[in-house]
UniProtKB/TrEMBL annotation:
Keywords associated with the record: Signal
Alphabetical list of Pfam families matching this protein: Beta-lactamase
Keyword Oxidoreductase: no
Name of the protein in question: Beta-lactamase class C-like and penicillin binding proteins (PBPs) superfamily
All copies of domain Beta-lactamase-related, residue ranges: 55-373
Amino acid sequence: MTVPLLSHRRLPVSAALIAALAGVLAPATSASAAPAAIRTQAPAPDMAGIVAALESAMANGAPGAMARYSGPEGVRGRAVGVRDRESGAAMDTRARFRIGSVSKTFSSVVLLQLVDEGRLKLDAPVNTYLEGLLPDDRITVRHLLTHRSGLADYTNAMFEQTVPGFEAVRNRVFSYQELVDLSLAEPRTTEPGAAYAYSNANFVVVGMLIEKLTGRPVADAYQRRIIKPLGLRDTAYVHPDTRIKGTHVRGYLHPDESGAPLVDSTEQTVSWAQSAGAVISSPADLNSFTGALMRGRLLSPQTLEAMTTVTPTDGTNTRFYGLGLRRYDLSCGTRVYGHTGTVQGFYTYAFSTRDGRRSLSALANTSNHGAANTALGNTLEAAFCGKKALPAPAARSTAPSGTAAHVPLPAERDLPERH
Ligand code: HEL
C-alpha cells in the first residue's frame, strides 16, 4: 500500500419507500462484477458534448462552468462564462473552487488508510473509538461511510431557508460535537444498517474518528496522506478560514425567491460541514485524485474493493454508493466512481473509470438551482460515452435535431427548491 434519480436525503419519511424501490436487501454489488455491457474500447470523449453540457448549465442559471477530461487521449479542458461576475474574469480550468461533498471521498480514503494500518475496523461500533458519542452501539464505522447509520442530517433544518440559513452559518465556527448534537436532537431516520439515507452527520463523525485515531487535526491527515503524496498543489482543507487562496472561482447562490439576485457565497467557513465538505480543489487535482484512487495508489486492494462495493441509492439501478464513493452507471455501460458536491455557489462532479485511466471533473458556479446541476451532470455521458448515436428515425421526428437517445437523470437532489 502506498501511504501516502434521487438521493431523497432530504425526505426521511420516504427512506423506507426508496429502500424498497432500490432493493436494499439485495446483495451489494462489487466493482469486480462484470458490467452489463462490457466495452472493449473506450470511446473518445465528446468535447462538443461537454461544451454543450456546460452551456446548458449556464442557460440554466450558472454564471460559468468548466470541465476537465484526462485520459489516454490526453488532457482536455473546456470553460464557458465567468468565474467572477464583478470583474468579468472568464471561467478558467486552472481555478480553485469549493468541492462540497467530494470532500467525503477524501475523508473516506483517510479512514480506510487507518483500516489498512490496523488502527480501525470497519464493522466495529463507532462507540468503540469514540466512547459514548452515539446513542446506539449498533452503529458501525461502515454504517457511517455508507450513509446507513440513521443519523439525521442536521443541514435539512439549517438550510430550510436557503439564504437566511446560509448567512446564519457563513461565519460561524462549530465544534464537531455541536454538529453531532444537532443531528442527535432529531429522530434517527433508520435503524442502523437498514437503509441508505444520506447525511452530512456521518462524515462529521468520520472526521472525529480521524482526529481521535491520529491525534491530529483532519487537515494534517489530508495533507500527509493524500495531498502531498499525489502532489495536489491546488487542494487544501480550509476551515475555519473563509477565503479561497489563489486564482479561484466565485460562487453564486440562487435565493429561494424566483428572480431575486444571486448571492455571492464565495467566502464562508464551511464549518457546518468540515470533514463532510470543506475541501477546496481544482479540476486537475480532482482528476489526479480520483484517477490515483482507482489505480490503487491510496489504498490496499482489499480496502479499495470494500470502497467500491456498492448498494443502490435509488430505484434507477444506475446510481450506487460504496464507502464515501458514488458509482454511476452510464448509458453506454461504463461505470464511473467518484462523488458529487453541492456547497453554496458551487456544483461539482469528480469521477473516474474503475481502472483510473479516464477522469472527468466539472464545476458550475451556482447552486440551489437543480436544473444547472442536472445539465452539468451531462458532462459525464459526453466524457465517458463519447458521441451519441442519432435517435432512431421514429424518435427523430419528435425529438429536436441532434438530440441524444439517452434521457439523463436529474442531479442528486438537495433540499427542495422553492422557485
Ligand atoms: S447535498 C447533495 C450533495 N452533498 C450534500 C452536501 C453535498 N451539501 C449540502 O448538504 C449543502 C446543503 C445546502 C445547499 C444549498 C445550495 O444549493 O447551495 N441548498 C439549500 O440551501 C436549499 N434550501 C446530496 C446534493 C452530494 O451530491 O453529495 O455536497
